[in-house]
Amino acid sequence: MSTAVKEKKVSDMTVRELKSLIRDTLQELIDPDYGLELKPEVEESLKRSIKSKKRIPVEKVASDLGLKW
Description:
By secondary structure, this protein is mainly α. It has one domain. The chain has four helices and no strands.
């Protein structure tokens, strides 16, 4: 969302701007990280992980996190 939209009153917004504001607000409520970018090194690590054949059983992950499974 642009800074110009952030500074406008709702009554001064176009329908498109209002819809965009509502959409962005909902996305932020659902996902607090919405709009943030990953650091390049995190992105590369995720790509390597996806390509990797090594898998960890969900039970081990839950146990490591102290979750009951």
